[in-house]
Structure formats: structure tokens, C-alpha cells
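Risk register update: the risk of archive-format incompatibility is retired. Evidence:
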Amino acid sequence: MHKPLNSQPPCKLPLESPSSQPATEPPTTEFPKISPTTLASATSPESIADRSIRQIAQSSAATALPRASHRFARGALRWAERGFALFGLIVALWWLSFDVSIITSPSMTPALQGTNLDNGDRVFTEKVSYRFRAPRRWEVITFFTPEGEKRMKRVAGLPGEHVQMTRQGKLVIDGQPVEVPDSVDVKYLSYGNLTEGKPVPCGDGYYVLGDDLKDSDDSRFNGPLAADAIVGRAWLILWPKARFGWVK
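Archived output:
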């Protein structure tokens, strides 16, 4: 009987147990230790609300001054606009309703007195009445001449009437003598177109005369006054103080 060529038993390699090799530990990251109290306070609703309030307060404090200055500037601008608008309205109302003149001629003496800018009456003219009615006889009116001069005279003749004057200085309207009111002190003289005592037609205008006719450039020399040249009614003497009162 033959023996196998390799009759030696197989060689067994020693098996290494898992415990025989050193274990390699994975790297670890160390985190700061947070106490439960700190964690609870950081995540509590009250802490979050407090931080939000502080942040809002800081932000508000940083922007409070610029906002306040902007509000002040806007308010000041708004009041300035209103002030200018009110001033413009007052100026417009004044220009449309009133006027002040200084008497520099004795032609309306004694109702209005003055010979220059220093001693002349300051007369207040209102422009409202004649927007609703026509001038009336014996009223003192303010008007502009064709040359642009402002004057004041008394209305004697109305549109459509005929004016004439006797040699004695008696005013006649449409052939009938006209009585001058006691409050009106006039000295009428038949100069200019009234010299010959012939009636002068007023047409569409007003025949105006000065109270002291010896020194008055009025309708006797210039003819009737056109209605559109009238500014308003001489209403009040403002100055001097001793003469303050209504224009008669």
C-alpha cells in the first residue's frame, strides 16, 4: 500500500481573534457644556421677548431723532404753505374789495382835505357796493382818469340825464332844479361846458363835480365819466385822527 506523497498533516495558520488587534476610536468633537438652567433661560419665551424688546428699543432710539426732525420739517413746511396761501388770499381780497388814497388837492374841500402827501386825508375806498348797484347821486366816488391818475369827485348827474347850471350856480337835472343835501357843502360854478347854461347829456356815463369848483378838474372840462373807470365809493377817512369818520 502506497503512502501519499505528502503525508504530513496540513499546516494550520493561527487565527487572530478580534480582541487581539487594537481598536481605532473615531475622532470626537467636544462641545461647551451648557447647564440646563442656561439652556432653559435661552430658549424660554420670556428671554426671546426681552431680546426683541431691547432690539426694538435700540433701533427706535437710533431713528427717533431723525424721524422727529423730519416730522418737524414737514409740519413747518405745511404751516408755511398755509401761511402763504392765507396771505395771498388776504391780498387778493384786499385788492378786489378795498383801496386807500391820499388827498393832494383842495377840489373836494371841505368833505376831503389836503394839498400834499404829508397833510392829505387818508381815504378808505370800498369796491364792493358797486358790484351790486350803480353809483347814486351825491356819492363821492374814486376813479381813474384816462391818463391813469386816481381822483375823487361827487356824482351830480346819472346815466341818461342832462345836466346844466344856472348863472347863480344852481344845479339843474333834466330841466328841474336839484336840491343839494344839507350834509353836502358845495360851491358850484358854471365853468367849462356849463358856462352857457345849456344842458349837457350824460349818455352812459356819470357827471361828476368837485365840491369846491373853483379848483376842480371834473366833468365840466372832461365830460361825463365812463362807468368802467370807477374804482369804488369813498367811504371812510382813516387819518388824521381828528378827521376820522364817514365821507359825507
